[in-house]
C-alpha cells in the first residue's frame, strides 16, 4: 500500500492563520499600521493630524519635517506615503520622498526611523543634515550602478535608477532654475 501524499498546506487555511512569504515583496505591503511605521515621539512635541478623506499627517515640533499617508480606497493599492522636509516651517520644500502602496511596512518604518534619528541629531547640534548634506551625488549613485542598476536622465533634470530585477527604483530631480533670456 502506498503512503498518503503529503497534505497541501494551502488547502483549508484558517483565515486567522499566518502564512510567511519570502521574499516579502511577493506578499504585498499588508495593512498599514501607522504606530509601527511612524515611531515618532508624539509625547515630545510631534503632532498627529487627521486630514480629509482619511489622510493622516505627522509633523515635527519645528514644523519642517513631515510625513503623510493618503489612502485611496477607490483605487486598489493606490495608498501613497509622502515624506518631506521644508526649508522653513510650511515654506519651500528642500526635498520630498514618495512611496506607493506596494512598499513594505518594514522599509517605511526604517526610512522614518533614520529620518527621526537625523532630525534628533540636528535638533541637539548646530548641524542640518536633513537639508544640507555634503555627500556628493556620485557617492550615493555609484553603489547602485555597480550593482547593475540602470540609469536614465531626462532633460528636465530627472534621473531614474532601476534595479536589475525591476522591483523598485529611485527617481531624483535636481533643483533646476528658470533663466530668463535677455
Quick take:
This protein is α+β, with helices and mostly antiparallel strands and 182 residues long.
Description:
The chain is of the alpha+beta class and 182 residues long. It is built from three helices and eight strands, in the order αβββββααβββ. It has helices spanning 34-37, 105-123, 137-146, and strands at residues 47-50, 56-59, 65-70, 80-86, 93-100, 150-153, 158-162, 170-173. A five-stranded antiparallel beta sheet has the order 1-2-3-4-5, covered by helices on one side. Strand 4 (80-86) and strand 5 (93-100) form a beta hairpin. It is globular and about 80 Å long. The termini are far apart. Mean pLDDT is 80; it is low at 177-182.
From the helix content, strand content and strand pairing, which structural class follows? Answer: alpha+beta
What's the order of the H and E elements? HEEEEEHHEEE
- Major sheet strand order: 1-2-3-4-5
Mean pLDDT: 80
The level of helicity is: 10-25%
| Low-pLDDT regions | 177-182
Count of discrete alpha- or pi-helical segments spanning 4 or more residues: 3
Which outline best applies?
A: globular
Query: What amount of the residues lies in strands?
Result: 15-25%
Distance between the termini: 93 Å
Number of strands: 8
Oligomer state of the chains in this structure: single chain
Keywords:
182 residues; alpha+beta; five-stranded antiparallel beta sheet; three-stranded antiparallel beta sheet; 3 helices; 8 strands; 18% helix; 23% strand; globular; disordered C terminus
